[in-house]
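for the recovery benchmark. tokens below, seq after
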């Protein structure tokens, strides 16, 4: 993954994810290790700031617009409809929980505490009498496929009334 990242080889990343969706996880550990090492030992605040900057600056390579302008409108409308009828909405994604949390409130009106996703362990570190959370080096879970309902139950303590998704892992 390091060479692919350095050279902007998005094909390699796409191939690894496609293989995963077809049951071949031969590249998934390598991909996960690369992602984990890129953020290891970073404070959760620094990570959130970098994510926020990424979403403020980055543009979708095909659509040419901000990723924040790429939310699937029918899904956002469904979230508003459910919310107006008393539902408590969550996001359960195969993507990184801490990558999504800084933007879900603005994009979907879903607060960070209702975001479930793949995660890396966090470490508590004391420095100069203050405690800090830092991103660790161990992948906790890939919230995808059969792991997703397990994680939903783990976080909310019940089965969802409705679940909608846009990938093979949903």
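predicted aa per position
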């Amino acid at each position: 993954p390091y060479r692919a990242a350095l050279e902007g080889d998005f094909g390699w990343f796409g191939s690894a994810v496609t293989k995963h969706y077809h049951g071949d996880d031969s590249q998934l550990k390598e991909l996960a290790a690369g992602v984990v090492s890129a953020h290891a030992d970073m404070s959760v605040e620094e990570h959130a700031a970098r994510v926020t900057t990424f979403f403020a600056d980055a543009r979708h390579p095909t659509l040419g617009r901000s990723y924040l302008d790429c939310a699937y409108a029918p899904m956002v409308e469904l979230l508003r409809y459910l919310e107006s009828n008393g539902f408590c909405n969550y996001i359960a994604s195969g993507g990184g929980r801490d990558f999504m949390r800084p933007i879900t409130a603005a994009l979907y009106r879903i607060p960070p505490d209702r975001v479930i996703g793949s995660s890396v362990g966090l470490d508590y570190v004391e420095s100069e009498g203050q405690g800090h959370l830092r991103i660790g080096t161990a992948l906790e879970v890939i919230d995808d496929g059969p792991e997703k309902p397990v994680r939903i139950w783990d976080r909310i303590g019940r089965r969802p009334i409705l679940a909608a998704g846009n990938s093979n892992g949903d």
